[in-house]
Amino acid sequence: MKKLFLKFCIGMFFFLPGTIYGASLDEMIGQMIMIGFRGMEITEQSPVVRDITELNIGGVILFDYDVEKKKFERNVRSPEQLQKLVQDLNELSSDVPLFIAIDQEGGRVARLKERYGFSDSVSQAYLGEVDDITITGSYALATAQVLSELGINLNFAPVVDLNTNPDNPVIGKLDRSFSNDPQVVVRHSWEVMNAHRVFNVLTAVKHFPGHGSSREDSHLGFVDVTETWGMIELEPFRELISDPGCDMVMTAHIFNSHLDPEWPATMSKKVIDGIL
After folding, report:
1. Backbone CA torsion sign across 15, 5, 26, 33
2. Cα angle at 194 between 2 and 156, to 5 degrees?
3. Contact (CB, 8 A) for 213 and 163
4. Neighbours of 27 (CB within 10 A)
5. For 166, 194, 196, 203, which has the most beta carbons within 10 A of its beta carbon?
6. Closest CA relative to residue 264, chosen from 213, 223, 212
7. 19: alpha, beta or left, given left = phi > 0 and alpha = psi -120 to 50?
8. How confident is the model at residue 22 (pLDDT cuts 50, 70, 90)?
9. pTM score, whole prediction
């Protein structure tokens, strides 16, 4: 059984592993990689089967939308189908269990939608506006229970970016931030993290060192926040990371010359090994 702490970023991620006794260098490299794949089910011919059984891939991430094909036909069709898919994936990796991850933040960023037979969810912006941690905890518990029943053991949530730019195309405009107030973000993020712990589902605070001020979408290209980012954006991360139960940190594909004049956060030693 592996025991790992993960620093994750979109397209690139780093494990800080406990020793995997007897593992070869190739096996340890494989464990550092998480992949997406196509298919509502897997067969012996599925590429992901080889990736797990022969290349020792450490994890998979599930999506409902296929960006390249521009269709909602990736990994999710129904609760029953998804549960079977996850079960089959887990059976391929009995020696070193897989991370099986999903982005189930709620609202617009939710892979488990009503159209597939799942309960509707609400956005973090809605929960932050209501500002009742009991309600946030209730929604988070429901999400974590569903993930646990499906066999999904990692949710890339909560978003702890501050809503410093409401016109931000990837955070503010998608209602992904609880608030522009760090303490509101921290209170509600605690509820999300603690609710997932009840069901043994890992969480990841994101997107370090803060994506809330950006004017562009980092999924689409280079994003420079040098003139918009502020130190206040670190506050939620500082408080949430201080708890030993913080499982993972996802970094942001943003460039900030004040933090590192050469590299974006995901590739910056100054940001990752320094600030984080």
Report:
1. negative
2. 60
3. no
4. 15
5. 196
6. 223
7. beta
8. confident
9. 0.90
